[in-house]
Q: What sequence folds into this?
């Protein structure tokens, strides 16, 4: 038999907790946030479910509905809540006094009671703004929740009714429904909803968001914020949201027009300021599309007295910053701030010591694009039709030393960095020679006999066969890649040094040496000769054909003995690193993504990339990472055979490192 309970209305002030309610003596078991949400719902929608009460001592004791009772009392106490006093009556169901199932009824309701429907919550908060004119701040204060929580519920409560109905009917998920809040216009929401559901099938939140993006640009989007003032001044339509940051600029074409105009103004300003021949714009810089463009770079100039004074000041400040950055206890934020300051100072120093030639300015230009939420300028670009292809026709790029003119599209390495790279290459070459003892033995013997027996100049100055190790100077010896050092150490460990006994006389040592097997002698000679290698870059075929051919034989790829690391990348400026990633390695998307990152983050990315190429790389990208090196370090004819522009001129006193 089913027990029936008579309906009645009871004043809120006449309601009291029932001793049989399983939670009546433990009010702390109520979740305060849930009470706040329930209070918000009752304030707008009223009490949707009657309370179960039993008359005790002239009062009505709440047997089931303790949370609703608590929310009603909060509304009575809240002077800002409209229509709720102690005399306000609410719907109840009366349990007979002789009913013996009170505890069971209370327990059953508290166990089986479902949380408030999420869509009901969303709608309740939305009505408080639409009907009562409240703000997110006042709603949050009233119900003891956060402004962020209120804003979230408000957005979802204002989604088109048809879409909310679909979510209630579970034909779409709650997450999919929430995705429609990306656009505040209910009409736009409805049109997208109908278009996406006309053929049936499962509707995903991602699909909804992508479809709504074509309906305009949110004012909180970086482009939306950038163009908003001009957009509204031109009368562009705005789909206003109750919360401004979710409003949408609906005319996407006008947004793009204004963006292009702003990019064009930035490009033209740079053209005028730097003296380039042309200016252009590209909303999203496409590295693949720009592959055929060349690039020119400023060359060194002699600073005047004022400029030199500023360079000296920068040098002093950079030294102080370097000491600060060596503090291991420095927090990331402070470290990044120092990095940015170093970048700014070094850029200023470069501007004081470099300038574009008149010829390069006459054929190059600047493109402005939108990257990382800001206008980015790509300067010194040369259109394909303007690229000079004739040998030696680059004029301003010609090297006064008589060496082959550098490619205008390559990085110009400052003298300090160039000297250190020469040292690293000499070390790698030495490792390769030690690992090819027979060839090196032949080279050594040929060098010795030809220098003595042949007339004229020495066959090569690249090695010194005079029983002395070559002196190698490097600014950061403790930070270089150790591959070549480890290979040389391994070669040393493999030497037979049994003859080298200080307790023996030189004659006895020589006798023991002569008794060694030819292969062991070859290793010893090769190791000794390898130790004489001088600081070097790739050989000029015309000037040193002997070493040019020999290096190609024993070291076709320097990357077998040397790997770029963070110490190298730290000495490149941010623009160079992005160029290497986007143009040399084919990682255009990664370059665009990292453009808004700090130099420290880009260096860490490059270091990790070269230490262990990512599994996500394509075969072509993996090959590029495996082969890349500064072009002048690779053996001529090898994987990186471009001739790189190198600044060989002596640096002035108070040198300022140009690569950060």
A:
């Amino acid at each position: 038999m089913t027990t029936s309970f008579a309906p009645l209305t009871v004043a809120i002030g006449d309601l009291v907790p029932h001793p049989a309610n399983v939670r009546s003596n433990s009010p702390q078991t109520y979740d305060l946030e849930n009470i706040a949400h329930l209070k918000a719902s009752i304030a707008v929608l009223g009490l949707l479910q009657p309370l179960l009460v039993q008359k005790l001592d002239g009062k009505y004791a709440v047997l089931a509905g303790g949370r609703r009772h608590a929310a009603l009392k909060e509304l009575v106490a809240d002077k800002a809540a409209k229509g709720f006093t102690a005399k306000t009556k609410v719907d109840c169901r009366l349990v007979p006094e002789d009913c013996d199932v009170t505890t069971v009824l209370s327990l059953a309701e508290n166990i089986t009671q479902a949380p408030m429907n999420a869509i009901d919550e969303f709608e309740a908060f939305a009505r408080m703004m639409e009907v009562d004119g409240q703000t997110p701040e006042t709603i949050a204060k009233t119900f003891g929740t956060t402004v962020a929580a209120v804003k979230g519920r408000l957005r979802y409560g204002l989604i088109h009714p048809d879409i909310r109905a679909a979510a209630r009917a579970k034909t779409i998920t709650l997450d999919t429904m929430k995705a429609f809040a990306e656009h505040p216009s209910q009409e736009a929401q409805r049109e997208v909803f109908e278009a996406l559901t006309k053929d049936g099938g499962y509707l995903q939140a991602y699909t909804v968001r992508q479809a709504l993006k074509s309906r305009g640009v949110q004012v909180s989007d970086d482009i939306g914020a950038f163009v908003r003032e001009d957009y509204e001044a031109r009368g562009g339509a705005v789909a206003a949201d109750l919360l401004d940051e979710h409003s949408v600029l609906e005319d996407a074409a006008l947004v793009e027009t204004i963006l292009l105009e702003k990019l064009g103004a930035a490009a033209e300003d740079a053209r005028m300021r730097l003296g380039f021949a042309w200016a252009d714009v590209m909303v999203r810089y496409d590295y693949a599309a720009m592959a055929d463009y060349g690039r020119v770079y400023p060359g060194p100039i002699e600073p005047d007295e004022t400029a030199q004074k500023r360079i000296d000041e920068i040098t002093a400040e950079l030294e102080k910053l370097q000491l600060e950055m060596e503090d291991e206890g420095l927090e990331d934020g402070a470290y990044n701030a120092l990095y940015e300051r170093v970048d700014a100072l070094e850029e200023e120093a470069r501007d004081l010591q470099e300038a574009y030639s008149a010829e390069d300015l006459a054929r190059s230009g600047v493109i402005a694009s939108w990257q990382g939420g800001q206008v980015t300028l790509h300067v010194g670009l040369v259109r394909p039709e303007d690229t000079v292809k004739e040998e030696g026709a680059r004029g301003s790029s010609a090297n006064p030393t008589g060496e082959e003119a550098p490619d205008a599209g390559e990085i110009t390495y400052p003298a300090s960095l160039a000297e250190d790279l020469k040292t690293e290459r000499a070390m790698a070459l030495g490792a390769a020679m030690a690992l090819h003892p027979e060839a090196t033995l032949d080279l050594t013997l040929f060098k010795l006999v030809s220098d003595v027996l042949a007339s004229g100049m020495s066959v090569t100055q690249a090695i010194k066969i005079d029983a002395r190790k070559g002196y190698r100077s490097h600014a950061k010896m403790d930070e270089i890649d150790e591959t070549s050092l480890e290979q040389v150490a391994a070669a040393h460990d493999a030497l037979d040094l049994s003859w080298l006994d200080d307790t023996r006389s030189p004659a006895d040592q020589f006798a023991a040496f002569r008794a060694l097997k030819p292969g062991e002698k070859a290793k010893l000679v090769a190791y000794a000769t390898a130790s004489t290698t001088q600081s070097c870059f790739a050989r000029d075929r015309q000037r040193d054909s002997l070493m040019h051919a020999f290096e190609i034989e024993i070291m076709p790829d320097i990357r077998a003995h040397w790997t770029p690391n963070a110490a190298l990348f730290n000495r490149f400026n941010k623009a160079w690193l992005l160029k290497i990633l986007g143009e040399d390695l084919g990682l255009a998307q990664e370059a665009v993504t990292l453009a808004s990152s700090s130099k420290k983050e880009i260096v860490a990315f490059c270091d990790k990339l070269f230490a262990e190429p990512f599994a996500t790389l394509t075969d072509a990208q993996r090959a590029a990472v495996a082969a890349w090196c500064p072009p002048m370090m690779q053996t001529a004819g090898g994987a990186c055979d471009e001739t790189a522009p190198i600044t060989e001129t002596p640096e002035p006193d108070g040198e300022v490192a140009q690569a950060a």
Summary: The mean pLDDT is 78. DSSP finds 26 helices and 14 strands in the chain. The CA atoms of residues 268 and 500 lie 72 Å apart. The radius of gyration is 39 Å.
